[in-house]
Amino acid sequence: MPLKWTALVLASVFSSAAHAEHEHMEHLPEIEVTAHAHDGNSDLHKRMVNSPDAASLLQDYTGVYSYQAGGISALPNIRGMNDNRIRILVDGAELTAACANNMNASLTYISPAAVANVSVLAGITPVSMGGDSIAGTIAVDSAKPIYAANADAWLYKGSFSTVYRSNNNGLSTALNATAASDNLSLNFTSTMDRGQSYRDGNGDKVRATQFERHIQTLTIGAKGENEDFVLRLSHQEVPHQGFPNQYMDLVDNKADSINASYSRRFAWGDLDTHVYWQEVRHEMGFFTSEKTGAMPMKTHGKDMGYSVKATIPIGDVHILRLGNDLHRNTLDDFWPAIPGDTMMMGPNTYVNINDGRRTRAGIFAEVESQWDSRWSSLLGARIDHVRTSTGEVQAYGGMMGMADIAAASAFNAGSRSASDNHFDLTATGKYEISESSSVEFGYARKTRSPNLYERYSWGAGTMARTMIGWFGDANGYVGNPDLRPEKANTVSATLDWHDARKKSWQVRVTPYFTYVQDYIGVERIGTFNPLSRVGTTNALLRFDNQDARFYGINADGAKQLWQDSAWGEGRLRGSLAWTRGERTNGDSLYQIMPLNARISLEQKKGPWSNGIDVQFIDSKTRVDDARFEPETGGYTLVDLRSSYQWQKARLDFSVTNLFDRYYLLPAGGVSYANWKAENAAGPMSALAGMGRSVNLGLTLDF
After folding, report:
1. What is the distance between the alpha carbons of residues 513 and 510, in angstroms, rounded to a whole number?
2. CA-based, 20 to 30 A from 148: which of 89, 495, 563, 629?
3. Reduced to 3 states, what is the DSSP secondary structure of residue 529?
4. For 137-154, what is each residue's pLDDT tens digit?
5. Residue 551: which pLDDT band, with cuts at 50, 70 and 90?
6. Tens digits of per-residue pLDDT, 470-507?
7. Is residue 47 predicted with pLDDT exceeding 80?
């Protein structure tokens, strides 16, 4: 279906929703959208069957999308702003990618099978949800501890699930076991996800898309009358993961984490505390014949932090929240010399980041007020201090690396530390116009400081620069110690129409505008020919402060179509997202999703749940010329899904890309692995998406 007709279809859906009089339709809140995996009809559950990547759980949130990286490492984007501009929390912990290509980003540390709740807050985010981010907040949580109903007997329960995906011969398994008394809970979860390289709609292999991951987590919970304590100990191993749009692959990633939270209710209000620590050892290299080479790159990173938040009711009108949080990231990124190589990758170890440190400390206060039955508001402010530093660096030292030797000397002689002060502000108001309509509006000022790679990557040689960058564009990047923090000012409003009981139908429209001062973009400082192939030109880029703007509109709606004994319950949902991201001179920014829409028809009767999802993506013609971003055509994808629930078992079946459509991902970067393996001439094409896959999942409860 041409995309220009999509808006007409959705407009028809939305307008007809105003005349519905049926019941039992879920309410869609104005700012925060939350999904729960325990509901068999939820988007979370269907995404668990379709993909082993936790980022796939975000695909049905309007205005949120992910861009392709590895099979379990897609990177989220909210309204045109990528993962580094989003605060991502996994069980309350803020985790940093310990990799110059973001191969181990936050969401790689949890499997979809372990996710119980996902919360997405876009744009105007409460200051209590954290600072040092300008696009929004994504919180992904595993299940809370469960307890026995009384003190007389222990509770024993668990589940085992497995999913098979035909396209890449993928397999996921999850084991969950709990033993609990009325005040103590012990839980063990083990998940495994693996797959081979997938095939596109033409049946051709998309090279370097294979992966394997193992995660084990022990959760200990304890509760009293007014207090709860949760401790999670986790270990993750990724023995390999291919990246089709990067020069190198992941050949090892090991992470250990400790995550503890304590909450207590007092007479004056609630106190919530959280502390976490994670250590990651990561290595990039080559592990298949699809991409060959010899160049080990190792990273050692640590994240640690805490948060303290007090929630204090003030009379019947106000709720005051006060808090303090801290996050510290340390990083060592070094590339061992190739034995015997004294010309290019030797004789010394290349030190990219030496004892890199990034520490953020913040305080906040916000007041939520319910002034009367119609008016409510939220006003908050926070202050953060961010300090970054790194030690002296070192080039390989070979005769062919003179540019890097000179760059290392200049870097060591310059300033290698910086301090930034942030001031964030959020102000929103909501007015209930009538029983069937409301309006919410707001303003936010948000600030983000550069990450360690943006500020301190220093290499001057082409090879060194191509090892930096998480954008999947096969370009080369160099950092900039003089980068200033990004400062984003956002205004938006949400118009909400619904039935009086907020159960039968709902339509929401959200226009937004964000102006980012000192946006960390890029300037082109040169070009090169990858693998010395004439006719292929890529860019050498330097991170640089620019001003940029993002604006667009999101619309979504839901309507119950029928509810009777013969056909059970049926509902229709639709969403439409349009985003424009550009520099103030009008040049388009990178990886901006074109106009896209989704329509879902769902039916449930007794133990059966069925659905059909249709996704429309417009052609992408506005591209980032500085990065040689390729254009892509429009396409339509159709997915089917069905499930049957017994008392102790569940069977899930889905078919993604039902018609085996060949398409190019508009935000997927370039197909470097195929370009290299096929000895192609000319520019690299955009990365192709996955062809048809038949997926079958089984869950057994015990």
Report:
1. 10
2. 89
3. coil
4. 999 999 999 999 988 899
5. very high
6. 999 999 999 999 999 999 999 999 999 999 988 899 99
7. no
Q: Take residue 145 and report the two structure tokens written for it.
A: 């501890």
Residues with Cβ within 8 Å of residue 463, at least 6 apart in sequence: 344
- How crowded is the C-beta side of 544, counted as CA atoms within 13 Å? 11
- Whether the CB-CB separation of 379 and 426 falls below 8 Å is answered with yes
DSSP string covering 505-519: EEEEEEEEEEEEEEE
pLDDT at 250: 97
Average pLDDT over residues 397-420: 96
The one-letter amino acid at 536: T
pLDDT at residue 361 above 80? yes
Q: pLDDT value at position 30?
A: 36
Place of tokens 């070094």: 334
Q: Which helix (DSSP H) or strand (DSSP E) does residue 7 occupy?
A: helix 3-17
DSSP bridge partners of 219: 187, 232
410 pLDDT higher than 80: yes
Residue 18's pLDDT band, with cuts at 50, 70 and 90, is: very low
Distant-in-sequence, close-in-space partners of 267: CB < 8 Å, separation ≥ 6: none
4: Cβ contacts below 8 Å, ≥ 6 apart: none
Q: Is the pLDDT of residue 204 over 80?
A: yes
Answer whether 644's CB lies under 8 Å from 651's CB: yes
Q: What span, in angstroms and rounded, lies between the C-alpha atoms of 213 and 195?
A: 10
- Hey, what amino acid is at 243? F
Contacts of residue 308, defined as CB under 8 A and 6 or more positions apart, other chains included, come to 271, 272, 273, 274, 323, 324, 325
**418, 478 Cβ separation under 8 angstroms:** no
Residues pairing with 645 in the sheet? 650
Cis peptide before 347 (omega within 30 of 0): yes
**Segment among 13-17, 155-159, 675-679 with least mean pLDDT:** 13-17
Return the beta strands (E) in 17-130 as ranges: 32-36, 64-67, 75-78, 86-90, 93-94, 115-122
CA torsion sign, 69 to 74 to 78 to 82?
A: negative
Question: Is the four-CA dihedral 17, 18, 20, 23 of positive or negative sign?
Answer: positive
How does strand 437-448 pair with strand 486-498?
antiparallel
Give buried/exposed letters for 73-83 (b at 16+ CB in 10 A, else e). Answer: bbbbbbbbbbb
Rg (CA), the chain: 25
